[in-house]
């Protein structure tokens, strides 16, 4: 773990954070390191999760300061009743931009956060200097990737029959306490790593600290994607996007990387890097390759 000049671990300093007030008064947790330089603003995955970018911040600390934040109703941000829409989350991201005094910002989004960062760039291209799109699923309909993902999930978790059986047991419970929720999440997230020996350890790190998954947020934004993604209008908007975009994939992600072709094929200013030995969180399994890709963009 990297340390600041005063000896405080960087991730501990980030955990304190500060409050960003959205235009409807909801308070969002956010953090950026001390020091100058144009930061890279990070959009975490989910929907309904929280910032898990401590390793990314440490990986880039000597070259690029980062802004981390928890999305509405998630993690360390204020619990609220939504609304759970992409437009609302785009407005929240713009509040983060204003709070840190950024005229334009470089954006990195991971998984659902890649979709959010792309949505922001489409809404406000003049406010984005570059976009890094990590482990997304493209702009096609769910049918392009979700059935393959589901099959891959069961196959990869099924490599350990005990883990698959335990996940199914937890999934079937009508109610789960915090310990059961954390265990269920770690088992589910373990499929995201190509290194099967270390997969569960990596997944347990994702669940520490634990803030609880915002299931209402998750359901609503996933349903919105099913209605609005995969349209000719979205494809046309991406074809007009005059922002440099870097797409970073882990080749061993169980979401089919061919789904991302739908985005890569239409963007006018795009570069793509595929890390062959990495899964859904490429900075965990190929930190050197991930760092090279980001700093070269």
From TrEMBL:
InterPro entries according to UniProt: AB_hydrolase_1, AB_hydrolase_fold, AB_hydrolase_sf, Peptidase_S33
Stretches assigned to coiled coil: none
Residues covered by the AB hydrolase-1 domain: 39-286
A molecular function GO annotation: aminopeptidase activity
GO CC entries: membrane
Keywords, in A-Z order: Hydrolase
Pfam families per the UniProt record, alphabetical: Abhydrolase_1
Chain ranges passing through the membrane: none
GO biological process: proteolysis
Similarity-based family: Belongs to the peptidase S33 family.
Protein name stated in the entry: Alpha/beta hydrolase
């Amino acid at each position: 773990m990297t340390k600041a000049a005063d000896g405080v671990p960087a991730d501990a300093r980030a955990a304190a954070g500060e409050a960003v007030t959205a235009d409807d008064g909801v308070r969002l947790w956010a953090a950026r390191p001390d020091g100058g330089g144009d930061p890279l603003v990070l959009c975490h995955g989910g929907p309904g999760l929280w910032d898990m970018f401590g390793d990314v911040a440490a990986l880039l600390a000597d070259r690029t300061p980062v802004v981390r934040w928890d999305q509405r109703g998630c993690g360390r941000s204020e619990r609220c009743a939504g609304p759970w829409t992409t437009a609302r989350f785009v407005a929240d991201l713009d509040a983060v931009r204003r709070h840190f005094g950024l005229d334009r910002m470089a954006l990195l989004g991971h998984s659902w956060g890649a979709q959010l960062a792309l949505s922001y760039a489409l809404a406000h291209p003049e406010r984005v200097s570059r976009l890094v799109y990590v482990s997304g699923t493209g702009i096609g309909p769910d049918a392009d990737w979700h059935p393959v993902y589901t099959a891959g999930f069961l196959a990869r978790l099924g490599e350990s029959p005990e883990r698959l059986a335990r996940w199914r047991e937890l999934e079937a419970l009508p109610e789960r306490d915090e310990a059961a929720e954390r265990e269920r999440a770690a088992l589910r997230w373990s499929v995201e790593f190509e290194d099967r020996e270390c997969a569960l350890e990596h997944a347990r790190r994702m669940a520490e600290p634990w803030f609880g998954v915002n299931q209402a947020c998750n359901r609503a934004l996933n349903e919105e994607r099913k209605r609005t993604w995969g349209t000719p209008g979205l494809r046309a908007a991406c074809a007009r996007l005059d922002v440099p975009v870097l797409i970073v994939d882990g080749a061993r992600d169980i979401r089919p990387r061919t789904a991302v072709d739908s985005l890569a094929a239409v963007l006018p200013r795009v570069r793509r890097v595929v890390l062959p030995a990495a899964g859904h969180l490429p900075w965990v399994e190929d930190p050197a390759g991930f760092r090279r890709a980001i700093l070269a963009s």
